[in-house]
Amino acid sequence: MRQAVSWFFLSCRRYLKRLSFLAVLLALPAAAFLLNLADKSGDNRIRIAVCTEPAGSAQTALSFRLLAALTDAEGMFSFYACEDAKQVKEDVASRRAECGYVIAADLGERMEKKDYKRAIRVFSAPTTVTAELSQEVVFAELISLYDPELFSQYVESGSAYDFAGEPGSEERKALAKEAAGLYDRWAENGSTFRFSYETVDAEVVTPDAGSGVFPVRGLAAVFVYVTGIYAAAVGASDQKRGLFVPVPWQNRAACRIASMAAPVVLAALSGLFSLAAGGELENPAEEIFSMAFYAAAVLLFSWLLCLIFRRPGLIGSLLPFFLMGSLLFCPVFADAARFFPEAGWIGRLFLPWYYLHAI
User: Fold this and answer.
1) Do 161 and 218 belong together in one domain?
2) What is the pLDDT of residues 244-270, one digit of tens each?
């Protein structure tokens, strides 16, 4: 046992002296740290320019309220105010903004007259689909602002409330004011609509906690997996060169496994540091246990490869197959099983699939 431990640390020293292997070990944590730092320091939301037309005699409060609601809104879109339509066009043309909106000054009057043409103008680049997506947000904000006014107008002049008096009378105006207050109260207390959700039995893959641009966990899993296959090829080469001949036969298998375990353990440590650098090490004890179990499974798989194929060149030729299969069929960048259920079954042939679904 002591001899196997010595082989393990000597093998760690051997691999760390290889600058290419050391560079790969450090590259993943460094990339995760830099991208996580950029994600925290910057605003990753899609920028959209918005403005109202120049104030005039027809200026209404609705256009100002819509502008304020959009610029204060949270979500994937970041609306920012511009001085005029010219600035909106320039920002869209220079791609400082994905698209832009120009709100008519008399938006409120247009809504009352049902004159919707060019009430809100949209400017977008030909290559973007953001305009179609952001329109849902813009018009949802508009409706949420205009609905109370529309409701009050109906209470004041609609035929359903003729029992309260003639349209436009003081009684109807008082009722409309009361209705507006009730509308706001019932719309804000969450009791107007109620949604009931039912979760069916199905596999759900939780996305990365990070920005989603750099899949740290998936790449770490594939890195450990590929390193294990690489260790199997090196182990077969060492066996072929007679590196373990001086070792007593009863300790030979343990020393070979310890030598193969060295790069796998180093890759697993690199993966854990990557998760920490990327801000995804939420439960350290669980992450360490899962990574340790996964590294042991990779080591067992590598040992079986070494026993079955024996030839280092043959084992090395399998590396591209396992690498591409893991990237395509395991939920590294995206879960292909959501679109092609068969991909989920193919993904079970690769060890990263089990690690990524266990977390």
Assistant:
1) no
2) 888 888 888 899 899 999 999 999 999
Q: Are residues 77 and 162 in the same domain?
A: yes
Mean pLDDT taken over the chain: 82
Q: How many CA atoms lie within 13 A of 171 on its CB side?
A: 7
Structural domain of residue 93, as residue ranges?
46-186
Task: Record the pTM.
Answer: 0.57
User: Which residue among 151, 186, 221 closes a domain?
Assistant: 186
SS3 assignment for the chain: CHHHHHHHHHHHHHHHCCHHHHHHHHHHHHHHHHHHHHHHHCCCCEEEEEEECCCCCCCCHHHHHHHHHHHHCCCCEEEEECCCHHHHHHHHHCCCCCEEEEECCCHHHHHHHCCCCCCEEEEECCCCCHHHHHHHHHHHHHHHHHHHHHHHHHHHHCHHHHHHCCCCCHHHHHHHHHHHHHHHHHHHCCCCCCCCCCCCCCCCCCCCCCCCCCCHHHHHHHHHHHHHHHHHHHHHHHHHCCCCCCCCHHHHHHHHHHHHHHHHHHHHHHHHHHHHHCCCCCCHHHHHHHHHHHHHHHHHHHHHHHHHHCCHHHHHHHHHHHHHHHHHHCCCCCCHHHCCHHHHHHHCCCHHHHHHHHC
- Domain membership of residue 168 (yes or no) is yes
| Number of folded domains that form the chain | 2
Residues 250 and 339 in one domain: yes
Residues 254, 165 within the same domain:
no
Single-letter code of the amino acid located at 259? S
User: Does 86 lie in the same domain as 15?
Assistant: no
- Mean pLDDT, range 72-79, rounded to an integer: 85
